[in-house]
Design a protein that fits this description.
With 311 residues, this protein is of the alpha+beta class. It has six helices and 16 strands. 23% of the residues lie in helices and 34% in strands.
Length: 311
């Protein structure tokens, strides 16, 4: 089936969000500068993004029709095999879009290399057309990323490109039972993060930063090591586990490969599970709810900047 449309997925800039909040740019500027902030940084970021977006649209229009979809509409947008998805923005936008991509190839573009790390953004506006052309000719190389999933005992499920968070909705301790590798214990913590290979450089890395930072106060020779996960690996980490008469700290981290992580909520209210940092898209995780965490069958397809070898 031939590809007919490029779907550009973007998010609002911080400046656009501020203008929506304060009605005008002048009022937004007054608010930020009154608090001692640097409003010029918001303007530069916005102008750089708009310049990249215009360049991207101009180049696309020469070879394929395109339309723009805002991030907020992605969950309800139906991507088809007639589409190629072009994500322009931060790494997190790639993760958020991937869950709804239905395996459609995604060309991820970094609009501002001086501002964004671009771990999931192999292209910029100078070379992304290479990826588009390869997709149109079906000669692209891809990075396939398996999602993590949380399945509840009532049939609901949630996918995650980077990570799942299981815990409490507010800044209180989460209470639950956790089971893995035939070991079960009751815990109280700030929640559990379950990371995919793609997410190992994201939120999970901050957990390692904290752990090594605290340990480094007492042991000066500790070397920081980042987790290297395989495509079919998940790594879970319990944040700030608290030991008490009722709660234990024996299960604080581990790899999930063939096995699943089972969690039973002990919270009468405010328990949640969300993915990839989007707290508004969540499952309730309250008393009586049991979540099974493991690898999903679904995958996301990220186009790389290498060309598929001819056979």
């Amino acid at each position: 089936m031939s590809i007919e449309y490029a779907i550009i997925v973007k998010n609002k800039t911080r400046l656009e969000t501020l203008i929506e909040r304060f009605n005008t740019k002048a009022q937004a500027k007054f608010y930020i500068e009154r608090l001692g902030g640097n409003f010029e940084d918001y303007e530069v970021e916005h102008e750089t993004f708009q310049s990249s977006l215009i360049s991207l649209q101009t180049q696309l229009s020469k070879i394929i029709k395109h339309k723009v979809v805002e991030r907020s509409f992605v969950p309800s947008y139906i991507f088809t095999e007639k589409n190629v998805i072009v994500v322009i923005g931060q790494d997190g936008l790639v993760a958020n879009t991937a869950k709804y991509s239905n395996g459609i190839p995604m060309v991820a573009v970094n609009p501002d290399k001086r501002r964004y790390d671009g771990v999931l953004l192999p292209f910029d506006t100078s070379n992304f057309m290479y990826g588009i052309e390869n997709v149109l000719e079906n000669k692209y190389r891809q990075r396939t990323i398996r999602f993590a999933e949380a399945k509840l005992n009532d049939g609901q499920r949630l996918l995650a490109f980077n990570e799942l968070f299981i815990g409490a909705a507010s800044h209180v301790s989460a209470r639950y039972k956790i089971s893995v590798n035939n070991k079960t214990e009751e815990q109280s913590s700030s929640g559990v993060i379950v990371s995919t290979q793609a997410g190992s450089t994201g939120w999970l890395s901050s957990v390692f930063n904290m752990a090594y930072g605290v340990a480094g106060m007492f042991e000066k020779n500790i070397k920081l090591k980042r987790p290297k996960l395989r495509e079919d690996d998940l790594l879970f980490a319990v944040r700030e586990p608290f030991q008490s008469i009722r709660t234990e700290i024996g299960v604080t981290a581990g790899l999930l490969r063939e096995q699943n992580l089972i969690m039973e909520s002990l919270m009468p209210a405010s328990g949640i599970i969300f993915s990839d940092g989007i707290e508004t898209d969540f499952l309730n995780f309250n008393s009586g709810t049991i979540a099974t965490i493991g690898l999903a069958n679904e995958t996301a397809v990220l186009v790389t900047n290498e060309k598929k070898s001819s056979t």
